[in-house]
Structures are given as structure tokens and as C-alpha cells.
Fold this protein.
Amino acid sequence: MTRKANIYDVAKLAGVSHQTVSRVLNNHSSLKPATRERVEKAIAELHYRPNQAARQLVTSQSNIIGILIAGTELFGPWAILNAMKREARVAGYSIISVSISSDSPESWHEGIDQLHKLDIDGVICINLNHQIIKEVEKSLSSATIVIVDTEASKKFDTVNIENLNGGVMATEHLISLGHKKIVHVTGPSDGYEGQQRRFGYEKAMQKAKLKADVIEGDWSLETGYRIGNEIAARKTLPTAIFTGNDHLALGIIKALTENRIRVPQDMSIVGFDDIPEASYVSPALTSIRQDFDQLGNLAIGRMLIQLKTPTKHKAFTVPAELVVRESTQKLKVGK
Amino acid sequence: MTRKANIYDVAKLAGVSHQTVSRVLNNHSSLKPATRERVEKAIAELHYRPNQAARQLVTSQSNIIGILIAGTELFGPWAILNAMKREARVAGYSIISVSISSDSPESWHEGIDQLHKLDIDGVICINLNHQIIKEVEKSLSSATIVIVDTEASKKFDTVNIENLNGGVMATEHLISLGHKKIVHVTGPSDGYEGQQRRFGYEKAMQKAKLKADVIEGDWSLETGYRIGNEIAARKTLPTAIFTGNDHLALGIIKALTENRIRVPQDMSIVGFDDIPEASYVSPALTSIRQDFDQLGNLAIGRMLIQLKTPTKHKAFTVPAELVVRESTQKLKVGK
DNA sequence: TAATCTCGTGTTAGCGCTCTCATTGGGAGC
DNA sequence: GCTCCCAATGAGAGCGCTAACACGAGATTA
């Protein structure tokens, strides 16, 4: 294992000063093309790679973007994360993602501390509540902050899926099929996304002069299953359900099926997220698709812009889309 | 935003030399308790945090473990990743994961380059082929390497799920239910895991003196669906299918159902992975469960050990487990 | 033609830390 | 009481890089 080449080795081989090499690395403007070429050749020959730590020490810039995220066990956050990684890499940034649990302040501190140590340039907060964001703001004061999946704020750039509108779309889809007794099963009550979807549902119901019927849930399959059984046990059944995410829908369908309530014949169901499995389960799930790629790209894009030249903070949204499959159908007359 | 405190500020406040502060930070042994206390008080007062970059520059130790992984879009790798992050954090290491695509050498280089820049202490290679690992070995020569989901090697520590045995278990389960015409749909042919599962299948079939019947696939739902249709079109149907992963199984079930072939009445199906959705689809999927947490912990554990005191390389395995649900049943006599 | 300005490059000084070596002031050993 | 040693601390160098300034040579201006 030979010693790694440094900037002086390159300089010597190319017959220039180390500073000229540095200029090549940071592609400075005033450089003779011939010199640049010579240096580049030397770099290639020595397999030289600039030492990030040294660079960081002098520029106090780490080229690392931290991501603080609640609940990576879920499809949504995880899809966003992947998109962000791709996008950041193109711009020469690395991503460190730290998942924390919203209900353990200790885990926040740990996560924030980890990012602090790495001297990250920016943090993207995904799906965090205000309290945590405040903490981030305080502890990572020198980092640029971008917020995803949280209420818009004047202090940061925010990027969101059209959660509310998605809720409206899902609900109106069911209404347009003739359903009147429509239940909504929410995500966790302390989350922004779930709240917005719920508001969307309520807005659409109100507009159609229908009575809202909300059951509080979370994002899990298990809870969906449990609630599905609860619904099946009702004296008068609803004819349609709109769930906060696809996992809830899957759990509910399972429970309903076990109770001999057929989907979609007896009950129409709309999910949210459009997970990859959605079109392969039986019945294939009608759902609201979120463009996680676009969301991730947008968030990283804003981060890069703010990192380069801080500008006025804005709120961005990414549209949602209704994907109709087999789990919803027209309400049979007489019901 | 005031200047961050450095080691000299602390030293001055505590009335000692910077070197003594450094000793406190690295809790050196020969230090008067009184001095240590004084320094610690100064650290607290100034909110001092050692600068990671400076440290790294001099020690050439980053406390970062890189993870190179093919295909994070899949449940398995992603679950492993999460487990690793948790485990590494406890030991004070950060994780940077880079996903690459096995069939694009350019993406390997990019990924490796990114890790190189960060001066990672170790790399964990998940689900990579030999060619890529060779490349990693060459380019990241100063990093400790641990291999996951790949053939055992004398040069590195390796950690694997019992893929072969899982394949045997799945197949024997079907055989024990009376099935004789059992098809195996594989994962991608260039992947180690898929190969092992296939070998397991072949081994079990051979032992039972049954004829192997293998269809090559990949890990995707779409491919499962396509192959499901192909199987449905056969003149004589098999009575059972063992698939390389759960997504394939889901796709196949969808196709079979559309062709009026009922699961499990007409066809028993066993998957592999036991994704969270497995017990919530209809019919609930019989599958081979992998303990991804254990796998991740083990890999990180080995990495930490090798990082601390390089020892002889060993191969480790994590057991797989058959989880029987609804998608398999006894072969009806007369078939 | 002298004064000024550019371009392309070299020189020097740190960034904040740890390493190595030097230094001091007692206590043990004789 | 003297050497010797060791525990406890300090001083200085240097990790690899970039920023700021310096400098010479040719081009441009007055």
C-alpha cells in the first residue's frame, strides 16, 4: 500500500507549482491550456485525488448534504431519498441520511449531532415536525435548510407533494362513482402529510355536502388490518374508503376480504402513494401517485441554489395524480 | 454567527496548552483529574466541538464507512442498509451509501470515486459481482472491505444469508406437500443470491428424484407477471412454483389469477424475502424470511473488528426461515 | 518610451488538529 | 543529599489543501 499522491507530487511531475495544480482542480480561468493539460496528465498518471479533509479544513465546506428523516421504513421517504442521492451526486455532493424517530428527542439530538460532526453544508428535513426543525435550526445554524413534506415556512425553502389536492382527487373520484358513505382512514395525526390528505378529503366531502367520517390510523399494514376489521363490524357499512397510504389500504382489503366483504364489488378503496406493488395485488389498487423523483430533485435543486447564492425562500409543490385500477367501481344502484 | 471555538480557545480558557486539550479529547491516560475537569468545563462553556476535517487530515481516519450497493430499489438491500446505519451510529461511525448499477462500469467508477474522495475507513460491498469488487479493491486499497451477499472469499470477511439452504427449505416444503411438478423462477442470472437459491432448489429436487424446471427471471414484479402468463400458457401446468423473491411471486400470482388459475388451490407458490406486504396480500404469501437486521449488524460488527485490529478473514452466515402462509397447500390427489 | 495593465504562474501563510519530542518537578532508591 | 526516573505537561512540526499576495513578461496606453 503505497502512500497516496498529494498535490505536490502532481506538481513535481507536471513541472509546475502546487498552486497551479490547485488551479486546475478548481478549474480556475486564467490557465494556459497547455499547462492544464500537462497537469491533468500527471493527475491521471498518479491516480491523484484531492484530499477532501484538507480541502474542507481550509474552505470549511464539506460538500456533504445531510438528510434528516423520520421513518425510512416507509416507501415514500425511501423513494425520495434515492432520488436525492442521484441528484446530489451529479452536483458533486454526497448525502448522509440519518433517520430518527419523531417521538424520541434523544434520537433527534443524536442525529443532529452526527450531522454536526460532519460539518455538513446543508440539511434537508423530511417529514419532521416543527419542534425538531427548530432544534435543527438552532444546532446546525451554519447549514442551509430545506424542508420537505412539512408545512410551508417563510424561513426556508419548502418542497411538498400536493397532499391536499391528492386528498381531494381521491375523494372526488369516489364521489363521482356515486359513493356517498365514504370513510377516510388517516395517517398518524401528528404528521403534516396525513393532515393535508385529510383536509383534502374533508374539503371534497363538504363540497359534495356529504358527511365526513374519519378514522385515525398511522402508516402501517397492521393498523390497516385492524381498522378494516373495525369497519367490517359496523352495522351499516360505508361503500367506499379512502386511506392515507397504500399500506393502510392493503391491510384493510385483507381484513375486509376475510369478512367476506368484496373489493371493489362491496367496497371501493383508494390508497395514496402508488407503491410498486399497487398494480400487482388483487384487486389492483386505485391510488394517488406521487412523483418522488421530482420531489427529490426539486429539493436538492433548491438546496444547491441556496448553497450557491442564498435567495428568497419559496414554497414549491409537486403535483399528484390519480391512478385508477381495480379497487374502485361505480356504486351499484339500490345501495 | 460568531467564529467557532477551536482548540486554542479552549486551552486559553482552561489555562493549559492546546496539547493538553487534545489529550482530554482523546482521553489520554496520564492526565491529572483536576486538569481534565478544568478543560472539560472550558469545552462546555465554549460549546467546543473538535473539527472533524482537521482531525481527519492528520489521522487520515474519517470514521465513515462507505456502502456500495447494487439496486437499492429492492426491499432486501434497503432493509440491510437501515440495519447497518443503526448499528454503525452506535459505534460513532457514519454511513454513506452509494447505489450503483451492476451493468454500468461507469456507475461503478463514479460510486467508488465518491467514496474515495471521502476517505472512508471501510467499504461494505452488498450484492456486487466479482468484477466490481476487484475494482473496489484496487481503487480503495487503503479501506477495509467486508462483503455481503456474495460468494465467500479468503481475502475478506463475508456475511451471507443462507440462500442455498433457503432454496432447499422452500423446495422441500413444496415436496412435502406432495408436489412433483415444481417450477423455479430465478433472480437475475449474474447475482450470487439468485444462483444460490437456485442451487438449493436443484439440490432438493435432485434429492427427491424430481426433474428441475427452471425459468430465468430477475427481481421485478413485471417479470413475474410476464413469466406467470408464460406458465399459464403451458399445455401441462406445474402444480407449484418457487420464486427467487417475493416480487416475482406477486407478479406471477397476478398473472395466474387473471388466467383463472387459483392460488393455492391450483398452484402453490413460495417466495423469498418475506417482504412486509407478504402477509397482507391475497393469498398471504408463503416465503423464506431473511433476518436483514442480523445480517446488517453482523456486517458492521465485522467491519468494526477489522478496523480496530485486523484479524483473519472469515465467512459468516445468517439463517433463513420458512414462513408458511396461505399461498401453499397440499396437492390434491389425482392431479 | 515610460507607465500601466493584464495574464499566467509562483510563494507564503495558515485552516485545526495530532504526533513526536522536549521539559519540568517531584518521589524512589542508594 | 544525589542521581535517576517517571508522571504530567508544553512546544513545534506538519497533514494537504486554498487564499492572498507577489512577480515577471508581454501588451496596451499616454
In short: The mean pLDDT of chain A is 92. Chain A touches chain B through 48 residues (CB under 8 Å).
